[in-house]
Design brief:
about 425 residues, alpha+beta, Dna Ligase, domain 1, UmuC, Alpha-Beta Plaits, DNA polymerase, domain 1, 3 domains, 5-stranded mixed sheet, about 40% helix
Length: about 425
């Protein structure tokens, strides 16, 4: 049996862990540059605030109902995610981390404890250790487990754990699930299937398999088989290697100068290098892209990108930053109000020890370059990201707006939560 653990309104829940006064109050979390709503509490959903709504369009509702607004605090959310996943993994070791707030588990070995009882224990333990509420769905396939977890969130009577077992119960669940809510279908396929009169997951599960394969290919056929209870998607205990790595940001304001763009691109290339090294991989292709806002005046609007092959597969910041800076110089054109830039790495492959990627010091200096990279990573690990960085990254005046950011409670010593000490009782009078 598979289980899916899904954190409830994860970003909002992270904010509430360190600020209990937010419990019961409507809360929203915003995207980069405080642009639009990407997470909502149940109270905010009840007010009609939709996912993806631009902030300026819901300011009236926010003001009238006292909605708490937060900028995205990814260092906090990432650390809390690790704590949740580690807690779950200690109780169900066969784990596939699917996203920042979701993970699949194989619970086949826990039948003797009672699957629902064990899942409920996992849920209580996560809440106790981290303060994050989770919902858990259990079923014979990953697709059905995903459906069960979503149902567990909506049905308070199940206590946060829902087990889909038995043909009648599965049939009822499929009949009440809109097709676009099925994992792996999405809006485009659901619109395509609506032309065939297919509206629910049950309709889709009952389609002729040959028709599904003709309309949606092998992927659609696997989704249908999963809904019918046939396992097609195994648990991925080892995460597959990424095909590309992209680091990009929208700027908090218009950026005109090549110098500020260089700082941004250098920072993105450095972050991409860190991701590569965590994966134990190297990249042979590098793309830099820059663009203005799509809403800029047509005469000022511009998009540009270029891809280059690196001399050798690389994973270090110095090589990637140097290459990215040269590409930016080639595609930059002055006079445009740039609002976004990014670096994309491709042709990713496993790193071959002892390392063939460090070009800054030449072949003879590869050991020194590797040692330097490791020292920088150790410093940033101990004192926080950005404590030591390449000079090319410089001032970061281009960074996104974060007007409503909460402290990084768990990853920065300077921002750790401080609880006021209780007032001292006056000393007892001395006995004479």
């Amino acid at each position: 049996m598979f289980a899916l653990a899904d954190c409830n309104n994860f970003y909002v829940s992270c904010e509430r862990v360190f600020n209990p006064m937010l419990c019961g109050r409507p809360v929203v979390v915003l995207s980069n540059n405080d642009g639009c709503v990407i997470a909502r509490s149940e109270e905010s959903k009840a007010l009609g605030i939709a996912m993806g709504t631009p902030l300026f369009r819901c300011r009236d509702v926010i003001g009238r109902h006292g909605v708490a607004v937060f900028s995205s605090n990814y260092p906090l959310y990432g650390d809390m995610s690790s704590r949740v996943m580690n807690t779950l993994g200690a109780m169900a070791p066969e784990q596939e981390r699917y996203s920042i707030d979701e993970a699949f588990f194989d619970l086949s070995g826990f039948r003797r404890f009672g699957l629902r009882e064990h899942a409920a224990l996992m849920r209580r333990t996560v809440l106790k250790h981290t303060g994050i509420p989770v919902s858990i769905g259990i079923a014979h396939t990953k697709t059905l487990a995903k459906l069960a977890a979503k149902a567990a969130k909506k049905d308070p009577s199940c206590g946060g754990v829902l087990m889909l077992e038995g043909a009648d119960r599965v049939r009822r669940a499929l009949a009440s699930t809109p097709l676009e809510d099925v994992w792996g279908i999405g809006r485009q396929w659901s619109l395509k299937l609506a032309l065939q009169g297919i509206q629910t997951a049950a309709d889709f599960a009952g389609m002729p398999p040959a028709l599904v394969r003709r309309l949606l290919g092998v992927t659609g056929a696997k989704v249908q088989a999963e809904l019918q209870g046939h396992r097609c998607l195994p648990l991925e205990l080892v995460r597959p290697m990424k095909q590309t790595i992209c680091t990009s940001r929208s700027f908090g304001r218009n950026v005109f100068s090549v110098e500020e763009l260089q700082e941004a691109v250098a920072s993105f290339a450095s972050r991409a290098a860190s991701k590569l090294r965590r994966e134990g991989s190297t990249a042979s292709l590098l793309t830099v892209f820059i663009s203005t806002s799509p809403f800029a005046a047509s005469a000022l609007r511009r998009e540009a990108s270029r891809t280059v092959s690196l001399p050798r597969a690389a994973d270090d910041a110095m090589t990637l930053v140097t290459a990215a800076s040269r590409v930016l110089e080639a595609i930059y054109q002055g006079g445009h109000p740039y609002r976004k830039a990014g670096v994309l790495l491709g042709a990713i492959a496993p790193k071959n020890p002892p390392g063939e990627s460090f070009l800054l010091f030449g072949d003879e200096g590869e050991g020194r370059a590797e040692a330097l990279q490791q020292v920088m990573e150790q410093v940033n690990l101990r004192y926080g990201n950005g404590s030591i960085r390449l000079a090319a990254e410089d001032s970061r005046a281009w960074e996104p707006l974060c007007r409503h950011i909460s402290p990084r409670y768990t990853t920065s010593w300077e921002e750790i939560l401080r609880v006021p000490s209780a007032p001292q009782a006056p000393p007892a009078p001395a006995h004479r």
